[in-house]
Amino acid sequence: MAKLLVVDDEPINLEIIGHCLEDEHQLAFAEDGLEAWAMLEASPQAYDGVILDRMMPRMDGMEVLRRLKADKRFRDVPVIMQSAADSSEQVAEGLAAGAWYYLAKPYAPKALRSIVSAALDDRRNRKDLAQIGGRLQTILDLADRASFRFRTLEEVSVLSSTLAQMCPNPETVAMGLSELMLNAVEHGNLGIDYAQKGRLIEDGLWQDEVERRLAEPAQSTRHASVELERDPECLIFTIRDQGLGFDWQRYLDLDPARAFDSHGRGIAMARHLAFAHMEYRGAGNEVRVSVALTDPTDSTACDDDSI
């Protein structure tokens, strides 16, 4: 069971969240940001996620968020911000500060569980992907150019984590590659659109539907690919699928209007957290990304000519 820190100055909100989640997660509660920060500092490894109200006395949610994202001990801990569903300006400010998950007030139990699961799964997957990939690191470090095919969820997991081990920031690159490769499989080759995925996740059927479509005879010869190129300063990855493409421009940033959805943030997270540059080509069934080999935080290390 994951352990969550729930922060809200309204006792009724703590009670509602506790009632919805207590059977699935271990919960700790704080009544304002100052108490929450003291609990985090006292046990920096204790919490797998934070559910954070925005408006609180003594220390508000935005200040807690800024402190979390500025402290390397907590940078990977997902923060689920509570906000009214129509507060697009507040959502945009939270996104800029590093909050990628949103919980709409008033609470709907199904939506609450869904967004908490999405946040925790994303973090768990990043850690798992980083651990899987060390097996082929030595061989890949000798490669200047390579090409790989993939079509299943397991192949996405193993391949993205393995390729990421070549990078200075393997955990975030594994997340980024995994998101783009999953998009190539589910949206590109299998044709699962945004609305369909939302319904499948809500009903707990997303993975079953992906596996069902992969087993169809028409999919037996379809695959996606990822190509690797190395230059002195960058690693460049090109991911292609055999689908019709999609309206990729909408997903380069997380629109506040979609912030409360259980999915739809993967491309934006990959762009902002994992890669120095990202470029979609054509209809959207090809994307090229680069990773700086020297300083992964330096977005100028790989110039536009690299990709």
Automatic annotation (TrEMBL):
Protein name: Response regulator receiver protein
Modified residues (4-aspartylphosphate): 53
Keywords noted in UniProt: Phosphoprotein
InterPro entries found in the cross-reference section: Bact_response_regulator, CheY-like_superfamily, HATPase_C_sf, HATPase_dom, Sig_transdc_resp-reg_receiver
PROSITE patterns cross-referenced by the UniProt entry: RESPONSE_REGULATORY
Domain Response regulatory: 3-120
Signal sequence range: none
Pfam (any one): HATPase_c_2
GO biological process: phosphorelay signal transduction system
